[in-house]
Amino acid sequence: MNLPSNLLPAYSLSQRNTLGFEVEAEFAIHITEAKQIAETLVYAKDHNMPYQVLGGGSNVVLPSALPGLTLLMDIAGIEIVSEDANGVSLKVGAGVSWHSLVIWTLEHSYPGLENLALIPGTVGAAPIQNIGAYGVEINDYINSVEAFDSQAMQWITLDRAHCQFSYRHSLFKANPLRYIISAVNLYLPKQWQPRISYVDLQHFFAGKENDSITPLAIFEAVCEIRTQKLPDPKQIGNVGSFFQNPIVENSMLAKLKQRHPAIVAYPEDTNHSKLAAGWLIDHCGFKGLRTGNVGVHDKQALVLIHHGGGNANELLQLAERIQKTISEQFEIDLQVEPIIFNA
Ligand SMILES: Cc1cc2nc3c(=O)[nH]c(=O)nc-3n(C[C@H](O)[C@H](O)[C@H](O)COP(=O)(O)OP(=O)(O)OC[C@H]3O[C@@H](n4cnc5c(N)ncnc54)[C@H](O)[C@@H]3O)c2cc1C
């Protein structure tokens, strides 16, 4: 196997992590075709090298040096597999930018993904944490996921039911590095209804009849709201929400409300509610805090930021401090959302 010719030694990932940390991969390889995944993993195993997988780097905290092989997932291509009056099936390469896929679907009059506009990163990473925003999760549209199973060393197609999707979670997240996703198969039904129950969208479209709201109008609304609320990683390093919104039993919420009447929560199911982690962090006085080269965003307390010159250790120390305070104040364990890579 003549793989080593396209291995890139001492490869800088500073432009490939939205926190903007200085990171060097011992070796990197651009994966532009599915078959390279299997070849690279065989090579890594034969040479006893650790490996990791990177999409756009918008949901990872990377150490300064990444040992072994880093697979840069750059597989392109959006293919219409089938289409009829009911809907369209698409096969999308893992390296396609998520937001450009959303734009492509709208340009081709395939609505459905508009609420998920402007989420950074790649299509291949979307199933990992079952990306979601503004009342929609990607699992609503996933038919199946094509991946190389690095444990069985074979290709596998997992249908939606086998992907074990839940809030910011999936089979893939539960088994880090086992499944390397080459493509995601989506089904977008043609029957469409606007989903604007999320409070920001409700406000945006207040007074409008549902019939007059188009997918493009929702796309533009989501882009506008996100641009106002979330820091642009090109301006300031971040990975979006740093913590998941905790899901608690309604009895726990009732107890919390007695002590904190203003606590923000949304119904999750009949017995559970989702707490706004940003409110908890803000309430503990962290919003706008800066410590060294890292801090908490001054408009959205759920977003930790990197001002430049910092590293993963600094950011994780701040995250721990926030977790400890929230645990002491509310008896709630905040879960970190991005994936922390080991050095
Ligand atoms: C400003 C901002 C806003 C955001 N808003 C949202 C939001 O609204 N909703 C939301 O859900 N997320 C949000 N995110 C998080 C992030 O955009 C998503 O999690 C996105 O799917 C990550 O894609 P990526 O390609 O950058 O993945 P990466 O960060 O490169 O990787 C994330 C994880 O997926 C793994 N991975 C990546 N590609 C593959 C592959 N092909 N096969 C197997 N494993 C893979 C990596 O190993 C890593 O464990 C936001 C991030 C930012 C910076």
Notable features of this structure?
343 residues, alpha+beta, Uridine Diphospho-n-acetylenolpyruvylglucosamine Reductase, domain 3, Uridine Diphospho-n-acetylenolpyruvylglucosamine Reductase, domain 1, five-stranded antiparallel beta sheet, oxidoreductase, cell wall biogenesis/degradation, EC 1.3.1.98
Summarize, please.
It contains 8 helices and 20 strands.
Helix/strand/pairing class, anyone?
alpha+beta
Order of adjacent strands in the largest pleated sheet:
6-7-12-10-11
Measure the end-to-end span: 28 Å
Helix content: 10-25%
CATH topology of the largest domain: Uridine Diphospho-n-acetylenolpyruvylglucosamine Reductase, domain 3
Number of strands: 20
Largest sheet: 5 strands, antiparallel
Number of domains: 3
CATH top level of the largest domain is Alpha Beta
Averaged pLDDT, please? 96
* Series of H and E elements: EEHEEEEEHEEEEHEHHEEHEEHEEEHE
Give the percentage of residues in beta strands: 25-35%
The Cα radius of gyration reads 21 Å
What is the overall number of helices? Answer: 8
Task: Give the second-level CATH assignment, the architecture of the largest domain.
Answer: 2-Layer Sandwich
Form type: globular
Low-confidence sequence ranges: none
Q: List cofactors, ions and other ligands.
A: flavin-adenine dinucleotide
Pfam families: FAD_binding_4 (PF01565), MurB_C (PF02873)
Protein name: UDP-N-acetylenolpyruvoylglucosamine reductase
GO molecular function: FAD binding; UDP-N-acetylmuramate dehydrogenase activity
Subcellular location: Cytoplasm
